[in-house]
């Protein structure tokens, strides 16, 4: 009876814990002012699509949407605007990505209750404040991360149970995520690489292709369309989204993912080296110990980093950092979670560690990240567009326009829309 009560509490606790990030992101989406990128996407693309959809307009969106690699989010904003009839409302503009954020947190809690993710993975995924900010902004990063997380849960099931249904749910979802933000194409490529190697090792590669001809045919056109689109909008020579930097490297990416988890960057360099070397050695050890079983996402994560390094040093197309790494954050956490779980199992068997040690460590980590999340909460600002929020106050106070930021246009049109009673 007592064990049953403990199980019920453990099952309900994740849902209680995610209430904090859910309430935070809903409040921020409703209260905070528009940012530059949100206003630009809404005024230049989503608003026009909400008025009238035509083949010519869709073609223009595909060919001329500079630095707008968030197609799915843009189209959903247009759909919500048309369905509600509400224009120039911050909350309505952010509603599609906000819905994806609420889904993400509820699904994450469900996965923790069912044991699909560990407490370490749950903590890092639920209380990443930087990720939480992007569930309250009308950009595709948060939506993409939610879709990637859903896909990776099914990829983990496929690696464990060899279920063909799970791998195709994973791949179709990753293709959708690429339309939310095209940088997740690299995650799709990494998953395909690991899947192909696994099938080759199992001597099932060609048989799998024969069994999956229909699914493959359905994937080809959507993948090609978003791949061509990504190369257009990520042309670094024309000043497109990817960043140019000479700092890229394995430890550089470890540092960036630590920032995504903690929303802080003031840690000793030795910590990043320790994490990087430890993760690399643990992956190699587990790969030889159990092949891909139990460490498939860790291997996928390392393939993803190798692909990013190739983009920097081989193809010379810039690098990914900060918000461009948000879509792959679930992969980094789940891959790291597998390594921690695997190494803990090895140490527990050899050192005969008490079972209570893991529970205490999980509780401490949860308390630490919960306090960190609370300490970073700012319902009126976001890190990447911190100063944009002043424009609403300046406009409302009658200050004349001082720069070309499209937020000025958004609030001018909002005023006109409300004066007409629309």
Offer a quick outline of the entry.
The chain is built from 21 helices and no strands.
Description:
With 422 residues, the protein is an all-alpha fold. Helices cover 73% and strands 0% of the residues. The chain has 21 helices and no strands. α1 (2-17) runs antiparallel to α7 (95-114) and α16 packs across α18 (329-351). It starts with a helix and ends with a helix. The mean pLDDT is 85.
Name the descriptors.
422 residues, mainly alpha, 21 helices, 0% strand
What are the secondary-structure elements, in order, as H or E?
HHHHHHHHHHHHHHHHHHHHH
Strand elements, count: 0
Gyration radius over CA: 22 Å
Low-confidence stretches: none
Helix content: over 70%
Return the average pLDDT rounded to an integer: 85
Give the CA-based shape. Answer: globular
Beta-strand share of residues: under 5%
Largest sheet: none
Pairing-aware structural class of the strands and helices?
Answer: mainly alpha
Instruction: For the record, give the distance between the C-alpha atoms at the N and C termini, rounded to a whole number.
Output: 59 Å
Question: What is the number of helices?
Answer: 21
How do the strands and helices of this protein lay out in sequence?
Elements: H1 2-17, H2 19-31, H3 36-51, H4 55-64, H5 71-84, H6 90-93, H7 95-114, H8 119-126, H9 129-134, H10 140-161, H11 164-180, H12 185-201, H13 205-211, H14 213-233, H15 250-262, H16 269-290, H17 296-313, H18 329-351, H19 355-376, H20 390-396, H21 407-419
Helix pairs in contact: 1-7, 2-7, 3-5, 7-8, 7-10, 8-18, 8-19, 10-11, 10-18, 11-12, 11-14, 12-17, 15-16, 16-18, 17-18
């Amino acid at each position: 009876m007592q064990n049953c009560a403990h199980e019920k509490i453990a099952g309900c606790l994740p849902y209680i814990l995610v209430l904090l990030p859910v309430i935070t992101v809903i409040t921020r989406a409703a209260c905070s002012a528009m940012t530059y990128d949100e206003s630009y996407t809404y005024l230049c693309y989503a608003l026009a699509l909400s008025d009238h959809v035509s083949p010519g307009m869709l073609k223009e969106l595909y060919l001329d949407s500079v630095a707008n690699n968030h197609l799915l989010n843009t189209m959903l904003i247009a759909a919500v605007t048309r369905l509600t009839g509400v224009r120039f409302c911050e909350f309505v503009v952010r509603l599609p990505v906000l819905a994806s954020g609420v889904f993400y947190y509820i699904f994450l809690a469900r996965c923790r209750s069912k044991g699909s993710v560990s407490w370490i993975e749950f903590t890092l995924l639920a209380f990443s404040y930087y990720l939480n900010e992007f569930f309250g902004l009308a950009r595709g990063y948060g939506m993409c991360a939610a879709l990637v997380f859903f896909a990776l849960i099914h990829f983990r099931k496929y690696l464990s149970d060899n279920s063909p249904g799970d791998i195709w749910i994973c791949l179709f979802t990753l293709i959708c995520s690429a339309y939310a933000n095209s940088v997740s194409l690299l995650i799709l490529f990494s998953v395909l690489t690991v899947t192909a190697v696994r099938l080759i090792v199992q001597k099932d590669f060609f048989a799998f292709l024969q069994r999956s001809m229909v699914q493959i045919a359905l994937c080809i056109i959507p993948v090609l369309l978003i791949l061509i689109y990504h190369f257009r909008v990520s042309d670094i020579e024309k000043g497109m989204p990817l960043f140019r930097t000479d700092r890229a490297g394995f430890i550089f990416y470890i540092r960036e993912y630590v920032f995504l988890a903690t929303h802080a960057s003031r840690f000793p360099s030795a910590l990043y080296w320790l994490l990087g070397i430890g993760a690399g050695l643990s992956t190699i050890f587990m790969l030889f110990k159990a092949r891909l079983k139990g460490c498939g996402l860790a291997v996928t994560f390392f393939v993803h980093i190798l692909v990013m390094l190739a983009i920097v040093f081989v193809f010379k197309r810039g690098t990914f950092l900060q918000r461009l790494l948000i879509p792959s954050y679930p992969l980094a956490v789940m891959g790291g979670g597998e390594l921690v779980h695997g190494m803990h199992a090895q140490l527990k068997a050899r050192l005969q560690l008490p079972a209570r040690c893991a529970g205490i460590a999980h509780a401490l980590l949860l308390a630490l990240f919960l306090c960190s999340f609370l300490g970073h909460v700012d319902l009126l600002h976001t890190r990447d567009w911190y100063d944009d929020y002043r424009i609403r106050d300046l406009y409302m106070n009658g200050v004349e326009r001082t720069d070309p930021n499209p937020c000025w246009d958004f609030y001018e049109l909002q005023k006109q829309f409300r004066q007409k009673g629309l």
